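task queued by scheduler; priority normal; single chain, no ligands, no partner chains; default sampling; output format set to structure tokens
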Amino acid sequence: MKILIIGGGNMGLTFAKSFLHSHIVTHDKMLILEKSPVKAEELKKLNIGTVYGEPGPYIKEADLIIFAVKPQDCVTLFKGLKPFMDDQQVILSIMAGVKIETISNALNTKKVIRAMPNLPAQVGVGMTAFTSSEAVTRIELVMVQNLLNATGKTIYVESENAVDAATAISGSGPAYVFYIMQAMIDAARKMGFSLSESEILTYQTFRGAIELYNKFDFSCDEWIQKVSSKGGTTEAAFNTFHNDALHLKFQDGLKAALRRAQELSEEN
């Protein structure tokens, strides 16, 4: 199988390295199209595959083409690619908000998979939700899922609406976690800890909580009860959270992210 990755930015490079590291593809079967001359030269030095600067006949050689570019670049990109496309090639797009129908019509191809990975894919613990057009076969779906699993965990969803929802939850999710971590670090600083002490207190707390959640079969609510004691410090914190309706405000933020994801889909 030959794979062409279009876009040599963070996610494109993450895919290339992950596929090679997992021995899913060999260097001679990895193709990368990067239009920035500076980035293209940097990619060549990494020796992760054959790097091209412009579309060309080599595109027809690819069994799978991965779009890892910004959505605002897609219209110009599609025009340059269309003359070299084969309608039996499988397209995997991680362009936020760009619909399967848009890609299919622009490139005259029916086999399109749309996915939403997140930033932790860069370190092999990403979360990706994906869906596909009806023309994609089960074998092709399994092939793509195996590729995506090289960057973490995946779930197949039935509709593009669910991909938009995953964008609001797992796609943007790491930023929410960092936001809460920063709030805890800032609070620790105000309580007299140094920056390094504040960071390790916060980091290890998050890591430990995730390990507990993964190791035992308790819900988040059950874990909260295990940490809390009547009249204790945790209860005091949660009384403030509840009084400020923090839970509902946080959900409102996720709903705003979903609305924006849906707006982007409508624009494309």
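post-processing summary
- The first helix runs from residue 10 to 21.
- Residues 3-157 form a domain with the Rossmann fold fold (CATH 3.40.50.720).
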